[in-house]
Amino acid sequence: MSLSRREFIQVMGIAAAGGMLLDAKGALAAPSAGALYDVPRYGNVHLLHFTDCHAQLTPVYFREPNVNLGVGQAVGRMPHLVGEQLLRHTGMKPGSPEAHAFTYLNFEQAAATYGKVGGFAHLSTLVKRMRASRPGAVLLDGGDTWQGSATALWTNGQDMVDACLELGVDVMTAHWEMTLGDKRVKEIVERDFKGKVDFVAQNIQTTDFGDPVFKPYVMKEMNGVQVAIIGQAFPYTPIANPRYMVPEWSFGIQEENMQKMVDECRAKGAKVVVVLSHNGMDVDLKMASRVRGIDAIMGGHTHDGMPAPVIVSNGGGKTLVTNAGSNSKFLGVLDFDVRDGAIQGFRYKLLPVFSNFLPADRDMTALVKKIRAPYEARLNEKLAMTQGTLYRRGNFNGTFDQLIVDALMDVKGADLAFSPGFRWGTSLLPDSPILMEHLMDQTATTYSYSTLTEMTGATIKNIMEDVADNLFNPDPYYQQGGDMVRVGGMSYAIEPNARMGARIQDMRLNGKLIDADKTYKVAGWAPVAEGATGEPVWEVVGKWLRDKKTVAPRKLNTPRLIGMDGNPGIALS
């Protein structure tokens, strides 16, 4: 990719503006798609991108994190900026719809003002609008699409497959899809997607002979330009999720093979090479610095809404690195101007999908209604009322996570509880009913067994140290992109910059230090070991909620942070 100095300055000006004048005069007084989503066509290669929707077919509330710590070289860099630090970095105006889309600031008030986000019917309207002005535009799905809701679980992912076909997805890669099992994934790819959607992943191979399981890339001709899209599935799927679900497939980053695929695409005439990635933002930034010839990485997994691309220099030129948030909340629009066999410039915008500002697409609305109809009674069961905001997102805890560990400890009679550091899960405003659908939004996996295990203090520490290294290892290639395990009942301190095995400190239960040799009863859920059994966690928490009827605001059990003073990725107030 080559940019003139004038072009580079112009592009960075667009990036600094965040890409949208959402707070333009009159926008809130008369919300309309025309006022908010007028994105003129640029160039002749057009890529639309969403990722990590986690099976959210209807509009939701979603609170962005107030803790997203960067370590090592990531300190103070996007995406590890939150709240006011993020606003200052991007030039967004406080109190604007854009500030609501990208930050947690004034969440309750802003959510009540601007309404819900996402929903496939509203996303579909935006996709059609962008495609109408962009001939040949390709829609990319970054994965984590077939998991995350009750209907996705109950239909074995079929609801999302049908919705994505209606949406017009052209190319897809994957992560949580694999928790449906290898046979189900292959069935969808070879039956539902055949001739319609290209499922690509250069880094999934057979464990015996190393043969590719899926196509590594696909070539598309767009307005006379050859465009290559290379797939990069989540590298750590067999570690972060149950290995027994994909026993004959290997994953990994596969950087050398990625370089080989890029070179192969260039040799076949590709003038634009894009990686559709589920690595996570920090991993993508490192990959962009090491692999030559990639023009853009359109990423997912870490749920980071990136208002503008990060431009990474490498041995072959420059690579744009983006990430398109989660929960069908955003649509990325990347336009390239390709002339004389080379990219002359680009434009990028990450458009928030405000359901109040975009009309619902009629055909998608009908499909979603049909999908949900058999399950409405179960989805709408009222379990309790919440007095406080419930959310999941942040490095250490969220109020919905706190609710889950509180329920597990009460029902299981445990000394402490663990809940996985999943980044998916919608939010609820104060004084709202907690429906079964909302609980399933937090817990719907194919292995959500609840557990009660006796563990020594030493084992508890080892588990927490392992998760902490997955999150805070200074080398992005050793990060798995989730958040810290949520802990109920036990206080602790954490030093993210410490060496592996020395980050977790001062573990206490009821004020007393955890004894390494003593045994404790630990409740949890979502074990990755084969053969695990137990009552589904939504049944455990559901019983607790029905008994409570009204849930008081949750007091977060967050760790004491060591060495994080001044880190712009944290705002506790």
What would you say this structure looks like, in words?
There is one protein chain. The protein is an alpha/beta fold and 573 residues long. The chain folds into two domains: 47-61 and 115-368, Purple Acid Phosphatase, chain A, domain 2, CATH 3.60.21.10; 381-561, 5'-nucleotidase,  domain 2 (Alpha-Beta Complex). The chain is built from 18 helices and 25 strands. The strands form six sheets. A six-stranded mixed beta sheet has the order 4-3-2-1-13-14. A six-stranded mixed beta sheet has the order 6-7-9-10-12-11, with helices on one face. A four-stranded mixed beta sheet has the order 18-23-16-19. The longest helix has 16 residues, at 457-472. The protein is globular. The protein starts with a helix and ends in a 12-residue tail after the last strand. Mean pLDDT is 93; it is low at 2-33.
Topology of this structure?
Layout: H1 5-16, H2 33-36, E1 45-50, H3 83-90, H4 97-102, H5 107-114, H6 120-132, E2 138-141, H7 150-154, H8 158-167, E3 171-172, H9 182-192, E4 198-199, E5 205-206, E6 217-222, E7 225-232, H10 237-240, E8 249-250, H11 255-267, E9 272-277, H12 281-290, E10 296-299, E11 310-314, E12 317-323, E13 330-339, E14 342-352, H13 362-372, H14 376-379, E15 382-386, H15 399-412, E16 416-419, E17 432-435, H16 436-443, E18 450-456, H17 457-472, E19 486-488, E20 490-494, E21 504-509, E22 512-513, E23 519-525, H18 537-548, E24 550-551, E25 560-561
Parallel strand pairs: 1-2, 2-3, 3-4, 7-9, 9-10, 10-12, 15-24, 16-23, 20-25
Antiparallel strand pairs: 1-13, 5-8, 6-7, 11-12, 13-14, 15-17, 16-19, 18-23, 20-21, 21-22
Pfam families: 5_nucleotid_C
Family: Belongs to the 5'-nucleotidase family.
Keywords: Hydrolase, Nucleotide-binding
